[in-house]
Amino acid sequence: MKNILRILSVAGLGLVAGPLAAQDAGSYKVLATTQLMGNGGIDYVYADNDGRRVYVPRGPQTQVFDLDGHQYIGAITNISGHGVAIDTATHHGFSSSPQIGMFDTETMQKLKSITVTGRPDGILLEPFTDRVYIFSHESPSITAIDPKDGTVTGTLDVGGAMEQAQCDGQGKLYVDVEDQKKIAVVDVKTFKVITEYDLGDTAGEPGGLGLDAKNHILFAMCVDPNVCVVVNADTGKVLKTLPIGAGTDGGGFDPNTMEAFSSQRDGTLTIIKENSPTDFVVEQTVTTKAGCKTCSLDTKNNVIVTVCTERRPAAAAAGATPAATPAPNAAPGGQGQRRGGGRGGPGNLDVLFVGH
Fold first, then answer.
1. Measured at the alpha carbon of residue 299, what is the angle toward residues 73 and 74, in degrees to the nearest 5?
2. How far apart (Å, rounded) are the C-alpha atoms in residues 352 and 64?
3. In this structure, are residues 84 and 110 in contact, taking their beta carbons and an 8 Å threshold?
């Protein structure tokens, strides 16, 4: 893999500097960018805060980076799909696709494939039940997997296209229902849908989701129109609607800074400040790179990780070593792909680290 690794260097640091545009002191900016030449489409990025690694499925494999030093570590071969979830206790990782890839995080070797139905997209490890949940665009909506051995323990039909999800750690799971402009609330103890929250007439299709678990606030990041709908997680009441960039497919919330965030394919990252459980404002719009539509959070350093791919110039491509050809079904598809930013083909994978 060394012959396809190309990390651009600034002053010998092995990193690409962030944007040169003037920023206010203490504001968010791109701190570092790691680039890796390769092939294939991408969808989600996952920051494993316990293992201090970043996982990005691309083409027929999953690329792994150091969360603190930002260096490329290596690839997990024959593990592809949309996103990754990690179970720290068992050192098992999972990648969402029709053939769920299960791997060992310590050896970075594939353990087995798990066949599931539907059209898997999002993925999440839920700590209350210690289950990995796969979220699909087709029935069954949600598939539960035991991370110890990869056994499918149940399925649930919600209806609609499932996207990103968040959990409160107390037994509730919140899932974007993209094509219905709703958030489904699931009781993981009984594995049943409790209710669904309608995001209202001013909402777009939710692709990203953040959760302030302490104050029970949801942040639904939507496209067409491009807005963040702030919702009371207990009642479903819409508290506020705020503008964001175009083409979100990922969001989150940092309880250390009390800020929600949304990554967009137009090359922006929207930061929303929660001043109180009833007061929310757009704090900053950060310039990232076109196609950086999904994101994850480094909770230790309060750094947001986002990813995109860039076509390599024709001149560079002519002299480069060909990258591996993606497996036929490896490139991410579905609603997230229609938002753009997951383009395949040879070129750089850019992993951006955004913080103060």
1. 10
2. 14
3. no
pLDDT digits (tens, 9 = 90+) for 95-119: 999 899 999 999 999 999 999 999 9
Ordered strands of the 172-177 beta sheet: 162-167, 172-177, 182-187, 192-198
Answer yes or no: is pLDDT of 45 > 80.
yes
Sheet with 268-276, edge to edge strand ranges: 248-254, 259-264, 268-276, 279-287
Amino acid identity of residue 114, one-letter, is I
What's the CATH number of domain 19-194+292-355, 2.60.40.10, 3.10.129.10, 3.30.230.10, 2.130.10.10? 2.130.10.10
**Beta strands 53-58 and 162-167, pairing class:** unpaired
Query: What ranges do the domains of the chain cover?
Result: 19-194+292-355
Residues 58 and 218: their CA atoms lie apart, in Å, by 29
Rounded Cα distance between 6 and 3, Å, is 8
pLDDT at 13 over 80: no
